[in-house]
Amino acid sequence: MTDSAGVRRSVILGTGSALPVRSVSNAELATQLDTSDEWIVTRTGIRSRHIAGEGETTSSLATAAARAALTAAGVEASSIDLIVLATATPDQTFPATATIVQQQLGCLGGIAFDVAAVCSGFLYALGVADSMLRSGMAKRALVIGAETFSRILDWEDRATCVLFGDGAGAVVLSAQDNEAADAPGILATRLHADGTHNQLLFVDGGPSTTGTVGKLRMKGKEVFRHAVTNLSAVLGEVMDDVGMSPDDIDWLVPHQANARILEATARKLNMSPDKVVMTVDRHANTSAASVPLALDAAVRDGRIKPGQLVMLEAMGGGFTWGASLVRM
Questions:
Q1: pLDDT at res. 69
Q2: Does residue 50 carry a catalytic annotation?
Q3: N or C end of the chain: smaller count of CB under 10 Å?
Q4: Domain map of the chain by residue range?
């Protein structure tokens, strides 16, 4: 999906996020597992993560993040006619968690559905919402990434359970027409999938196979290798679509899986680490929530400013991967 001057764009009006109350440090995990703070930090850059407690669900976190985004945007929930929620950990098999959020916000009657693309989910949801806004199917959207991954982890597998956390992030998108070439909005998005790598990152259960939720399984080294290659490639595709180079990007907001992946991707693009937004140290990998969580953090602390070019990117189970260039 590409854009040019004078074409309708989907503009980010506001961002928001929500985290569970409980923050769990590496030191706390080390009291329950054969691991250490040094082992986790050296390999991943993660120092802590938030874990959902009783009463905290994917829908409750998503709703809180959505409310924060609506407040930041200065718009009422009643103006939302599209909700696209990315999650791999829905409240129920059905209906879509997006409909629960819709009910909680009170913006009934519009479109609401979930997208399942795991860690790339927010990029997929953003791409779908952008297409629907630009086609005229909706005028204003909430795009949300929300997860409670702690509930599908094998807490006896130290190689995976230390990597993930829970949370939610959201953006309010509005369709706007503007003739200016430097107008805000989503400029280009590229999405991909390759199902041949299913067994490198997956959950070993599901309604039609085991009748259970299942637990997350991952072959970390192989995922790392594919991530660096795929992410740098898709970023190049988006840059080519808009006729720009990595030097033109003000900020890279990547999926927060592993600090080493973030650093390797930046190196491959010859991009300064100072331009990379990193929250993996305190959030860990929150799957579909990680990109909007990091985006909201950088908007709220003043790093990301109106008019700047921001590249969002992610890769996750499937494999799925994608990137989107946005002018704030």
A1: 99
A2: no
A3: N
A4: 1-328
Compute the radius of gyration of the chain from its Cα atoms: 18
119 catalytically annotated? yes
Count of CB atoms within 10 A of residue 306's CB? 9
Distance CA 70, CA 314 (A): 24
pTM for this entry = 0.96
107 flagged as catalytic: no
Q: Which residues of 90-108 are buried (b: 16+ CB within 10 A; e: fewer)?
A: bbeeeebbbbbbbebbebe
Distance CA 168, CA 59 (A): 9
CB 133 within 8 A of CB 143: no
Whether residue 4 is predicted with pLDDT greater than 70 in this model: the reply is no
- Name the nearest CA neighbour of 266 among 294, 284, 246, 286: 246
Q: Is 60 in a helix, a strand, or coil?
A: helix
> Rounded to an integer, what is the distance from CA 66 to the centroid of its chain?
14
- The CATH label, of 3.30.420.40, 3.40.50.300, 3.10.580.10, 3.40.47.10, for the domain at 1-328 is 3.40.47.10
pLDDT in tens, 305-315: 999 999 999 99
Q: What is the 3-state secondary structure (H, E, C) of 249-275?
A: CCEEEECCCCHHHHHHHHHHCCCCHHH
